[in-house]
Amino acid sequence: MLGHVGASNPLRDRRQAMLVASVAATAAVAAVSVAVWEASPYGRFLHHAVPQDGSDPPLALEAALFTGGWALMIVAMMLPTSLPFLATFAALVRQRPLAGRLVALVAVGYGATWTAFGLAAWLLDRVVHRAVESVPLLDAAPQLVMGTTLLVAGLYQFSSLKYRCLDECRSPLGFVLQRWQGLRPAREAVALGVAHGLFCVGCCWSLMLVMFGLGLGSLAWMLAFGTAMAVEKNLPWGGRLSRALGLALLAGAVWTVAT
For 78-129, what is each residue's pLDDT tens digit? Predict the structure, then answer.
């Protein structure tokens, strides 16, 4: 089966090129959409700061707007990092009816996992804001919150759980074959995407929290973090980058608190 999935032929290569082009175009549209949103009067909904002028909308609407912006950011940043996984699955199901729909369902499941994480991060952030407001020391030194975020992210770069999740992400063929039976294709495709999303969250959540703290509207940060996570997840030497990032984040934590 492995040889069959990996066999090279012009039709398969054309399909893979179409998949790459589709993901790249989708990510580009999402990135431009975030940039346009950031420049609009509604750009503040891409950020986690709580308005101080009493102009904030109902909590449910604010959560929905932030989650929508987060979902766009995930499409722009994280979907391209999963191209090897998507290409592997596409090659496996290429002879099935509606193969493209199955690949799309995998992407939907993957995006849904990251979107749920974004909403959870937003809710946690609201709790943190309330806690900061009630503690004078934290309210007077807001850099402690960002410094703590950088510290946690830096330490996680050296954790065994991160490398366990990275191992799963770096073995797309094994990951798919362990979880795909094809008996209920649509349901299994979504579940496969959710499972891959969970491992992706497991190896990247701390970096995404830093991105959360920086705000969702910066294309430069999106490109930088997205590239770093793509290297971590897909290249054999990505572990070396993980450790280098960890040291940089720890240094950033010290600098943030000190200044």
Answer: 999 999 999 999 999 988 888 999 999 999 999 999 999 999 988 888 887 7
**CA-to-CA distance for 114 and 197, rounded, in angstroms?**
7
> What are φ and ψ of residue 52, in 5° steps?
-105, 0
Alpha helices, DSSP H, located in the chain: 2-6, 10-39, 59-77, 83-92, 99-134, 136-140, 143-156, 160-169, 172-179, 185-214, 219-234, 238-258
Q: How far apart are CA 179 and CA 166, in angstroms?
A: 17
Q: Rounded distance, CA 68 to CA 74, Å?
A: 10
Query: Which residue from 211, 218, 210, 52 is spatially nearest to 129, judged by alpha carbons?
Result: 52
Domains of the chain: which residue ranges?
2-258
